[in-house]
Amino acid sequence: MSDESTEYNQRSMRAIILCVLVAILYTQFFLAPQQKAKQQQAAQLAQQQLATTPQAAVPAQAGAPGAALAPAAASGSAAAPSHPSLEELKQAPVSTVETGTATISVTHLGARISQYKVTNYRRELESSEFLDLIDSSPNGARPLGLYVGSESDDRVQYVLASVNGAAPQSQGVQLRVEPGTKTALEFKGALPSGIQVTKRITFTGGSYLLGVDVALDRPNPNNYPVLLEWTHYYSSEIEKELRIKHAMTLLDSADKVRHVQIDQIGEGAQLAGPNKWVALGDTYFASIIVPTLTSSTAIIGREGDVFFGRVSGSPTGGQFYSYVGPKDYRTLEMAGDFSLERSVDLGWFSFLALPLLWLLRALYALVGNWGVAIIGLTLVVKAVMLPLSKASFESAKKMQNLQPEIKALRERIKDPTQLNQEMFALYKRKGVNPMGGCFPVLIQIPVFLGLYNALLNALELRHAPYALWIKDLSAPENLQLFGIGIPVMVLLMAASMIYQTWTTPNPSADPTQQKMMMIMPVVFAGMFIVFPMPAGLVLYWLVNNIISIIQQLYMRSSEKGSVYVGTLVASVVIFGVGYLLTLI
């Protein structure tokens, strides 16, 4: 390998490794503590605001999961009874509605959702059971609960009063809603204080959006607003097992989105403020409650492993919506004029991640395999970035040609200030920009981070197979040999990085630097093994390395031909091999 490519290769490798470290370490060690600090500050501010503005306060049920912030005057409220047990729920009537997108069960005890199975998504890979987005602890509150001051409808035995305005034939109906049509179940009950409650839930065929209308026959004595709650039970063991980060998201009145990881919400922590909606979810699915009242308050909190979000209506009721389904950008965007698509966290460079996701879907429509689509997307991105890579290489080559003169200056001039002046004068005379090789590489970093977030959050990759032993592109890949899981693609990726390092001589002949460059790919591979990445991301990284090596070979020697032609031919071969693997 010629020396003129040395600086280019080292700079490219360091920049690429920096990208991954930024994406992983920033999330783990910077963003999480920062979010926690902001949350604590916001919670303190909310407590002060609620203490000084009684009409906005939301009294809580003492000791109840999902207790909201309350003024001091409400602290003496009587303790609420425990939530209904599983046996009590089993004895209560249940109404079931199929919308085409989900099968939804509503228990009449509390008129709350006890089951929400999405039709097109399985709970686990190769499982016949549909995913249930309702996950409650045995004695926890079910979603769609109603709170009025210190009261809730947790133990209210509702009566199904009507179905689409007509009296039902029985308590506990089974219905199917055709696409584009609506069905409304109207429940009636009474709170312990005697306040009569009407809760109407509207289902739309082919949609994940629910309408919830609540009406009280009179305002509560303290004029507290009605609250609608969504709860979810997140077991720390499940969190570790699935390796999927769960978060709560708020869209505030200033149109600013806040993503709060649930492991940053401490025991009993609560956050309140004027928000447009609140969402509970993971990478691929979300439950979002939306108030229609302009001045609504949204609250998130935690009690044990039960996390909750509440939104407020008026003292006599309110109109709400709830989206329960996949975090698909297009589906969320079409769910209504609520900006629900902003619950998808695509990072700082979402403006790049979104078109990359669109391109990924377009490629899948052509090839019918998400793994092959990732290979195609990687090759397209590398082809588009090739002029920048070539410019970086050529700048590095010019810098390499100046090394003899720079070395002579350093031997002749010992004063650092004078040396810098002479070197800049040399750069000016030769028409060389010392940073010219860095800028093209830095420009590519946002593209990498955008692609990283696009693949990390692509719902389509969940349980999507590629080829051979790779059955789920959203999970770490392991080839099982004699009961041992071997991350083959990670090892191949590390080998490609080691090859790039070995074939890059270090002109400084500094043994320490040489050792550092040699050990970096090993550390990098070890990081991918300790912190397993989804197979889709590793596939992208491996293909990216392979095409980068080929491009560098062409750029080092003009005798090999045009790097553009070489990239085209190599891309066709790589894409073809990737497709053939799906046929084995």
Dominant shape: elongated
**Spatial gap, N to C terminus:** 36 Å
* Count, helices: 13
> How confident is the prediction overall: mean pLDDT?
78
Q: Tell me about the biggest sheet? A: 14 strands, antiparallel
Q: Low-confidence parts lasting 5 or more residues at pLDDT below 50?
A: 1-13, 26-81, 505-510
Q: Can you describe this structure?
A:
The strands form 3 sheets. Strands 5, 6, 7, 9, 10, 11, 12, 13, 14, 15, 16, 17, 18 and 19 form a 14-stranded antiparallel sheet that branches. A 5-stranded mixed sheet has the order 4-3-2-1-8, with no helix packed on it. A two-stranded antiparallel sheet has the order 20-21. Strand 15 and strand 16 form a beta hairpin. The protein has 2 domains: 254 residues, no CATH class; 221 residues, Distorted Sandwich (Beta-galactosidase, Chain A, domain 5). With 584 residues, the protein is an alpha+beta fold. It is 40% helix and 23% strand. It starts with 5 loop residues before the first helix and ends with a helix. It is elongated and about 95 Å long.
